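[Meeting: bench + compute handoff]

Bench side (C.D.) handed over the final construct sequence. Compute side (W.E.) agreed to return the predicted structure before the next meeting so the bench team could plan truncations. Sequence as handed over:
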Amino acid sequence: MKNRWIAAIGMAVLTVGGMAWAGGAGGPGPTIPKLGPAPTIPGIRPTIPLPECRDPKAMGLKFAVISKDPKWPATQGKIRITGAVKNVGNAVFESDPRQASAQLLEERPGARAEMKAQQNIARLNPGQSINLNYERAWNTATEFPPKYILMIVYDPDIYIDANKKNDDCNRNNNRAELTGQTINSAWPK
């Protein structure tokens, strides 16, 4: 009981002392010196170096109509699906080609996704892109058209392989999709 009483008094003293220090109990509060502007050297701009970031990003998928069926030009033809992956980071992405790849998948309703194009990623400089292409016949009258998925896929142990040059600093931008409905609605009439 005596220990609890001592602890309660100690807490009260600390609380009142803290309020006085902060100016909450009529005290002046802490004194913080004002700093002037940072010194400058003519002709030199101070810079803060950015941390290295390797960021292969699935930039998106687009399609192009390559040809239209002469008999049914309003609904049928041949299209090309193109997916782009770009290093939007500020450092070179370097990997064993078997550890990182870009994959273009076609997923039909009720079925497993099927790989239509793949490219290993061994080196990707900042700002550099790679493209994956897939061509196929298209019919806008198909009731349940497929969707297309662009994914960046990594070996499961890529973050623990002692190669920091293949660590993706943003894993939240490694997938993009294009639906068949989007293709149908943009089909040229």
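W.E. noted at the follow-up: The helical segments are 2-22, 180-185. C.D. will use this when planning the next construct.
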